[in-house]
Every structure is written in C-alpha cells, then in structure tokens.
C-alpha cells in the first residue's frame, strides 16, 4: 500500500470509529480531507476494516468492548420485538467493530414491506421511513428509530432494512473473508453470553 493510500485508510478508519460513518462515506470524506482528487484510489473494505480494528485496539481498548456489548444487547432487544420478521444483525455491531457512534443495523424479511411499519405503529414506536441502497445497488425500504442507552449522551440509531421474505435464501451468508456476515437472534445471544463469561 503506498503512503497516500495508507494515510487515507487511517483517516477513514478514524472517521468510522469516531463519527460512526459507513465505509463508503468515510472513504469519500477522508479523500476530501486529504485534498485528493476525485480519481484518488480508495482502500477496499477489507483494508479499511483492518485499519478500524487497529484504531480500536490503539485508542479504544478500554471502552469499545463495553460499548459493543451494550449495542449487541440493544440489537437483541429489537430482534425480540421484531422476531416475526426473521431479523438478522449485520454491520459493525455484528462484526465486532462498533462503538457508541455506530448504528445498530438489522435486516428484516417481510411478505409485505408495510408489515414492519405496522408492527412498529402497533408497538407505539416513533420511526422515520426512508429508502436505503441494497447490496446490488437496488433501493430498499428502511426504517430508523432512535434509542437511548444508559449514560450515553447521544441516542443510538437502529436501522431496519426491509427485504422481501424470499430474499432470505438469496442473501449472502459469508463475507469476502469467509466470515458469517449476519447473525440471527440465537447467534447474537451467543455473542452476549461469550462476552459475559470473559
């Protein structure tokens, strides 16, 4: 990795950890901060994830494990509330790189996208509805709520990406490194129990 790309990767990693940016946004903002042109070579996600883990180890080792545990507990509670939609935890909270600045990201699988909205309304939950970009660039429905975590000054975003029920079988089960890219409620509970035992 050349020096400029290495610096860009480090800056992007800091933005991911300290500001909770997603990888794509962090790379673009890092390139702007370093005054690189629009044609600058950006790091791939695997290199950025490695840099994020390095940053966490160097600067957040005393706080990040507890923050991750709190976020996984929050995810499990929401997954229990939405169990009828076969929720899966994805992203930084699942992969273990999340901090209090990270969103909890859930994938829900519904026969009708409106069913998740109706469930939240019936539970008295205030939410924002919008559109997100799926893994193939397609638009997908997304719901977002804000949740308070004890002693944290800012609320945590819980994002729910709504997929068709048939998509569950088609969604990739592993990432580019052969790791499970998502976890169901049982897997999240297992992560919480392992951390409790540590």
TrEMBL record:
Name by which UniProt lists this protein: Nucleotidyltransferase-like protein
